[in-house]
Structures are given as C-alpha cells and as structure tokens.
Write a structure and sequence with these properties.
Elements lengths: L2 H4 L26 H6 L5 E6 L2 E5 L35 E2 H8 L5 E9 L4 E8 L6 H6 L8 H6 L7 E5 H4 L5 H19 L10 E4 L4 E4 L8 E2 L4 E9 L5 E6 L10 E4 L6 H13 L3 E12 L4 E10 L11 E7 L1 H10 L10 H10 L5
Parallel strand pairs: 1-5, 10-14
Antiparallel strand pairs: 1-2, 1-3, 2-6, 4-5, 7-8, 8-9, 10-12, 11-15, 13-14
C-alpha cells in the first residue's frame, strides 16, 4: 500500500451535508399537515426564490456584491468575495406568509422538526418563484411569467433580508441552517423542473408535503413520482510521491482547476466509475480506491461521492475533448499557485475544496 493511501480519513462537516433536524418522514403523507403547520404559531418558514434562500440582511449587506454570483454551470462558483462571516436564514412565522402560501403557484414543503427541551419547531419552505398576485391573475394569461416577490411582498421586499445562492450561503451558515437550505433547494428545484409526468406527459400535482408528485391523468392510476438523484464520483488522485493530480476542463473558467469527477453510468459500481473516469479523462490507471464521504449537490440533482485513489503511473494523457490540461502538484506548489492566482480552486461549499484541503492538511489561501 502506498504511504499516500495509508492514512485516509473520512471527510467531516461538509457544508451541504449537514442536518440537525428530524426529517419526520412518517408525517409527510398526512394530507392535512401543511395546513395545520401554517396555522401553528410555532412553525418557522424559510423562503426560496429561483434557487436562492432568504438570509438576514444585517450580516450580508457589507458583501452585497457577492450575493449574486456569476452564472457558471460547469464548475463551483468563484467565492473570493463571498460573505466570510456567519449568516442566518431569514426564518419567518407561518402567520406572516399564511395567505401567500395558499396563493396559486405557491409551493410549500415540510422540511422536518427541531426537537427542543420544551417545544418542537416545525420548518416549512415556501417557494415564491411562481406565485401569482391577485392583479396578475386578473390580467394575465398562461404565458404571463409570475413575479413571486411582488406577489408576496406587494410594495417591495422587506429591507431586513437578502437573497443568497446556496453555494455562497452554506459555508457561512450553522449546520441547522445549511441543512434546511440544502433540503429546501433540492426539493423545490425538482418540483419546479418536473411539471409533467415523464410517462404520459400529463401535469403533476405535489403530494406528501412536497416530497412526491402524483400524475393527474386518471388513466395513469395515480402514479407516484419521486425525485431522481444523479450520482457522481469525485476523486483525489495521488501518486507514490503523494502529489495530487488537478485538471482543467475545457468548459471551465480559464484558471479553474479541480479533481477528477464524472457521473456514474447505469449498471456501474462507484469504484468502476472512479477508475473509468480517471482513465478516460487523464489516461491514469488507479488501483487502491478509498471512500471519503458524500455531499448532496442540488445543481440541479446530484449527489457527490468522494474517493481518494492511488495512481499506478504518472504519465498524464488528457482526452483533449473534455479535459484540456492536467498536472501533478506537491503541497507547496499548490499553495503557491493558489496564493499567486495562477490557478483558481473550487468554492468553499464544494466537496472538491474539502478533498483538496484534506490532502494539503490546511485551508487553502
């Protein structure tokens, strides 16, 4: 066994892989649950809009420019200017959103319950992306695009909160808030994207407190639909000298580098996917494969399964299609390259960043 693989520890405290509340799965099928929780003064509601969550503005106003990251579908977003302090969800009482939660287009999801010493706190997510206001309902047809914020807040959004994308919020949040936000984004993204039955094309209806759908076609026998999760492996490849292999994919920003990753094929084991991706992308054969941990990545529906793998050789042969370049780094070389801006590392919310920092032995500059 290589010394580089001898002491591989599991990853801990990943920003999107934490949860401190009871999912309370058994209660989801109660048809009256959402209405009861909206009438319960103990219920707290977090707001979702187009994949972002509402956070308390007092902590984030100093970094207003970082609240809206540039779109980059190929890689984790840059976060050099993202909020560095602690941020909290803007949790709202159910009474304040009860009317809006029952508007056309509103999506309410039961996230679970926090058990306290004296009382339990139920949590709901309210996705306002497609809520229609009364005026919109009166003047617009089916092609009119709703403005959920105006429908809920009328004269404008409250000054005490901002909207923040999950990848910027999670590294600054408590385990409870990061877990709530991750679940909320994952399930509301799925509900918004799958609006028709994949079997017959009929509209679907959210059920089970937002965690499932049913087909509206009476001939489809009430077919149940559940979120589909796309597994992907992500691998830190090390050689006999304990160097780390980082690659730059052609679809990424010019200086962005990360570890090997790819989706698991149908009928494929995770270990086989690790070996296949390494061979396909950078021409490296790996033998010893060790599991590190996992992290949901709801952009839109992945789960990242992390591994460290030992390279049988060091001769890099990039595929020139997906991967443009790759290179081996010592710890000193990588720290220097990041510090000087020669390369850009993955964002703080990504499991890739934590895999690299685990290998380095400290946080990257």
């Amino acid at each position: 066994m290589s010394d580089a693989m001898r002491h591989v520890e599991p990853l801990r405290d990943l920003p999107l892989a934490q949860s401190e509340i009871d999912f309370d799965v058994a209660s989801r099928t109660d048809e009256g649950l959402i209405d009861r929780l909206l009438d319960d003064e103990a219920t707290k509601v977090l707001l979702v809009r187009e994949g972002s969550v509402a956070v308390r503005g007092a902590a984030s106003t100093a970094a207003a420019a970082a609240l809206s990251c540039a779109d980059d579908p190929a890689a984790p977003r840059p976060d050099a200017g993202a909020p560095a302090g602690e941020l909290d969800l803007a949790l709202i009482s159910a009474a304040d959103v009860r009317r809006d939660a029952r508007r056309p287009g509103a999506l309410v999801v039961y996230l679970g319950c926090e058990h306290g010493d004296t009382a339990d706190i139920p949590y709901l997510a309210l996705d306002i992306t497609r809520i229609r206001s009364d005026s919109e309902l009166g003047r617009a047809g089916a092609d009119h695009e709703p403005d959920g914020a105006d429908a809920v807040f009328g004269d404008g959004e409250p000054a005490w909160f901002d909207w923040l994308e999950l990848r910027s919020f999670a590294p600054c949040a408590s385990a409870r808030d990061a877990g709530l936000a991750t679940s909320a984004i994952a399930i509301t993204t799925w509900q918004r994207s799958q609006r028709f039955c994949p079997y017959c094309g009929s509209p679907v209806v959210p059920i089970w407190s937002g965690w499932a759908q049913t087909c509206s076609n009476p001939d489809d026998a009430g077919r149940l639909l559940f979120p589909r999760i796309e597994p992907a492996v992500i691998t830190a490849i090390v050689d006999d000298d304990d160097r780390l292999l980082l690659q730059h994919n052609r679809a990424w920003r010019p200086r962005f580098h990360s570890v090997s990753a790819g989706f698991v094929e149908a009928g494929e084991s995770l270990e086989h996917a690790v070996r296949r991706e390494a061979k396909e992308e950078v021409g490296i054969e790996v033998d010893d494969v060790r599991y590190l941990g996992s992290q949901p990545w709801p952009f839109p529906a992945s789960i990242m399964l992390a591994f460290r793998a030992h390279a049988c050789d060091t001769d890099i042969r990039v595929d020139e299609d997906e991967v443009g370049s790759a290179r081996w780094f010592t710890r000193e070389e990588l720290i220097r390259a990041v510090a000087t801006g020669e390369i850009e590392s993955p964002g703080r919310a990504s499991i890739a960043r934590h895999m690299i920092e685990q290998w380095v032995g400290k946080r990257l500059p």
